[in-house]
Specification:
heterotrimer; A alpha+beta (98); B alpha/beta (395); C alpha+beta (325); A: alpha+beta; rod-shaped; C: alpha+beta; four-stranded mixed sheet; 12 strands
Chain lengths: 98, 395, 325
Amino acid sequence: MCLGIPGRIVTIDNADDMVATVDVCGIRRKINICCVVDDEHPVASCVGDWVLVHVGFAMSRIDAEEAAETLKILEELGEAQAELETMQASEALSEAAE
Amino acid sequence: MSNDSGNGKQGSGLKYVDEFRDRAKAQILVKEIGKLAADIPLAQQRPLQIMEVCGGHTHSIFRYGIEGMLPKSVELVHGPGCPVCVLPMGRVDDCVAIAERPDVIFTTFGDAMRVPGSRKSLSQAKADGADVRVVYSPMDALALACKNPEREVVFFGIGFETTMPSTALTVLQAERDGITNFWVFCNHITIVPTIKAILDSPDLALDGFLGPGHVSMVTGPAPYEFIARFYRRPMVISGFEPLDVLQSIWMVLRQIKEGRCEIENQYARIVPEAGNAAALKAVGQVYELREFFEWRGLGSIDHSGVKMREAYARFDAERRFAVPNVKITDPQSCQCGEVLKGAIKPWQCKVFGSACTPETPLGALMVSSEGACAAYYQYGGKRTGEAAAAEAETA
Amino acid sequence: MNSTPVRRPPPRGKVHVPTVTLAHGGGGKAMRDLIDDVFVGAFDNPLLAPLDDQARLGLAALSSRGDRLAFTTDSFVVDPLVFAGGDIGKLAVCGTINDLSVSGAMPLYLSCAVIIEEGVSMNLLRQIARSMAETARAANVQIVTGDTKVVNKGACDKLFITTTGVGTIRPDIDLGAHRARAGDHVIVNGLLGDHGATILAARGDMALETPIESDCAALHDLIAALLEAAPATRFLRDPTRGGIATVLNEIAEAAQVSIEIDEDRTPLRPEVRGFCEILGLDPLYLANEGKIVAVVPPEQSDAALEAMHAHRLGGEASVIGNHLR
């Protein structure tokens, strides 16, 4: 029931009813976009937006910066881990050498 | 998605999905979780219990084998956040009663089709001649109403706050278009009373929560503050991909280690701080809280469901169609309630895998793709479960 | 002047009404006209021509091709009748050819029995028969006998087709699930789930626009090339209903082995992936109509892949997993 999938809005089909076409990997479907439209982001500006699609409705605009930030945290974690392991490995080597 | 054949398709990835399924990053997170857990004194005495409330998380956890990756000191408890799983049998009977009327086209999400009622499931009703159709969206049900003006089209509205807005917005569209043959059988439930009931339950001793990602997309993180403030448990609102779930578990552990109790938002790329104004407005306009609502296995919970407001009575299936509305208790052998509360694991249920299988389900948890039992069964958990049971015996 | 009388063939019957009626199933002239108009013209071959109650196949010719007869039957009830990439007729021919071919047999002859709901369009029926004929001809297979029934409205869903097929198996070929061994490779010849996704999308309930087409195809040629390059191939099966997941489970049970597949190496069209993600489906369980799962010993795996890549139906072939203990 929580099934949501990211997709890109490709066309506006009916601005009054706020119906747009979303593309998910080449599959297209008409969706309702009223949840991602507001005064600062009117209907026409939604073309090209990445949104979370849930049962035929765009429920949220995907924040590319936040997505990148989340991945960056994980990358930094990985780097820190790798550094630590290298340090520990070289310590072990030098201990063994003594 | 990579393809080793050499002639494989290029650029076939699913953006905002594939990056969060990256194996290498998952292994990094698993290591960090192990390190953190080793540093938490409580975890050395007994395994930490983290509950994921949302059925979508349950599905991800099983699909990606996340439980198996975690150290023994961290255990996941599967909560009741699957709207199909908590459907009481009596409610299914009500659906069947409506569907069996010859003037009705009964529309529903696919998941609800095979949940057993006391006589039959919707799927069986369809086989017996009722016009039951699976739809992807309530808007598709409305389109059916427009195409079939001589029939009554009823949409089975189930789901938490995630799905409430889409049903509400569909009703508002029907109102704008002057449609008179569209009805919603409203069975939407709210997440907060559920979590409260879990926290108040004496059976459970939980150390933290993975918060529902898509419910929060609508409500924002604010409704959960009471968990941190009054119940003193950390919660991390989590996305659904394996990296999201692992990172959220890591964040919960970090809070426990640092002695913090906060509501953190791991799913910030989708969950806005203020929730979704348009969605909340539509929900508030069309629905109001019920005094109480019955949940399979959990009994009656106050203010845990919504019904349609008087102003929208002409779209309310409950007002239009007489239904049996009988409270049906689960069969004796059913232990759905205990699994839903997280008191027992699916494989600990007496009938798991024997009398109750996906082909012959006794309860809703074996039917829904988000149900712990179905997920456990499909992703090899039966064998894992048997092995775990054997291990527990010899321990 | 000729001394032997020349028998002129009777004029071929034709149906002049736009839809099939119960009369067309009555056994009389109307039925004869339907058969002539729709099927005989399309399938036209010497074995069918006499239109006897049975086709007569010379045993000596069959025995010269192999030491076993492969014999299979299948019914086709797909809805919609026509879909992107094919129709029920093409499906009925390919499906039975493939069931024969996965035993290593050379498919030779098919029967075609149809049950038609009254009211079906004659032009649609002709289109489907032509499709069957073209598919059979391209595969060097003849449709040599058949049956036609017309039923009341509602007694069947538009059109049901049953095809039964025979083929010959050479003595040196011995394929079977029980032959699978630990270490064997599991190979598929291309992108999975296309047919299942096409049919689901075509039902229209989900209102999804997709460019996906059914992969419906006759595989005997590809299989012959595979067996030539990798004669020690253990087993073949076509993953139709239930997808490759179901077939692999069947193999695992029959051979009493475990099979491990690598999710990253299961070839999927991005659109099929997207389709499954939207609907929460598992592509490994979607039907395929132009795919085989081959269990091949590791030392012949490369040769098998090379042979498949060289064939137009095997361009995306890949090893997707292994048999374990």
